[in-house]
Task: structure prediction
Amino acid sequence: MSSMFTPDSNLELFFPVDLIPAQVKAQLHPDVHLRPLASTDYHRGHLAVLSVLTVVSDPGESNWLAQFRSMRAALNTYYPIVIVSKQTDQIVGVGCVFIERKFLRGLGSVGHIEDIAVDKNQQGKKLGLRIIQALTGISESSGCYKTILNCSDDNIPFYEKCGYQKKENEMAKYAPERPQPSARL
Amino acid sequence: MSSMFTPDSNLELFFPVDLIPAQVKAQLHPDVHLRPLASTDYHRGHLAVLSVLTVVSDPGESNWLAQFRSMRAALNTYYPIVIVSKQTDQIVGVGCVFIERKFLRGLGSVGHIEDIAVDKNQQGKKLGLRIIQALTGISESSGCYKTILNCSDDNIPFYEKCGYQKKENEMAKYAPERPQPSARL
Result:
C-alpha cells in the first residue's frame, strides 16, 4: 500500500503527540494513524467526518483556523484527536476531550469526551473504541478523577464495552432562535 | 437587617458582573446577593457549600487561589457564580457554567452547567432556580446554541421547571486509584 499521509513532524499539532497513550497506538488498525488535530486538517475532511453527528456548516478555512487557535489558547483544556487514513491522508475519525477544572474533590478535574465520529466506510476497524481509549487515557494522565460523556440509549452498550457505566441523566435546554445574520438589513 | 456583605466594587471578581442577567437579579430573594466568584471567597465558606455535593478536601487558600487564577486564565471558559447572604457575607449557593467551543454547528458553543449547590438552611428562597437561570442566561448570551447539565433521576423535575428536558445518558468512567502523596517515601 502506498502511503501518502503527512508525518506528525510536518504538522502544527494542537497538543504534544506524546500525550496519546502508546498502547492505544500499538493496537490501532494498520491502515490508519492517530494523532492530535493539526492546523491544516480543514483540508483533510475534518468537517465532513463531524457531519455524521449533527449540523455542520462550513465556516471557511480562516474561521476554522481561528477556532483552532482560540481553543488552543485555553491552555490544557481541549485535546482534539483525529484518525487519518494512511492511504489517502484524509480524516476518518475524530474525537475530543476537554479537561474541566473544579474546586471540589481537592481541586479535581473531570474529562468530558465530546463529538466522537467515525466515517461510515471504516466499520470493523474498532476506530471508535480506539478514539475513546485514547481520550480516556489523555484524561486520566491529566489527573482527572473521572471521565464522562453523553450518549443515546442505543450507544450505551458500546460505551460499556469501553469501560463506561451509566450514571446520571443529561438535561438540555436549547437557546431561543436568534435572527440569522443574513436576515439583517 | 444590618447588612455587612462586601460590595462587588471591593472584590476581585472572576468575570465582569454585567454578564449576570439583570432579570435574574431582580427576582432574587432580598436576603441574598448574586455575583461572580471572588478571589477572597475561600474565606466565605465556598468549599463548605460545595461539600453538599461530594468529597471536598481543603487544599488551603494559596492552592484555592491558584485554581481560581488558572481557571480564569482559560479566557471566556469558566463562569462561576455565588450567592451570598447579605447578613453574614457568607456563601449560601454556588454554580458554574463553562463554555465549550466546537467545530460543528458552525463553530458553535455549548454551555455545561456544573456543581450547583445550595446551603440546606436556605430552602424556600428559590436559590437553585436563580442559579440555573443566571448560568443559562450567561450561556445563551455567550452564544451557546444549547446548555446542558447532568442530574440524578430525583432532580429531573426540578430541572424541567427550569426549562430543561431529558436528552441523553451520562456515562462515566472513574480513574484507577492512584497512590496518595502521603504514601510516598
Q: What stands out?
A: Chain B touches chain A through 65 residues (CB under 8 Å). Strands of chain B lie at 32-36, 78-85, 91-101, 109-118, 146-151, 165-174. Confidence is low (pLDDT under 50) at residues 181-185 of chain B. Residues 127-141 of chain B form the longest helix (15 residues).
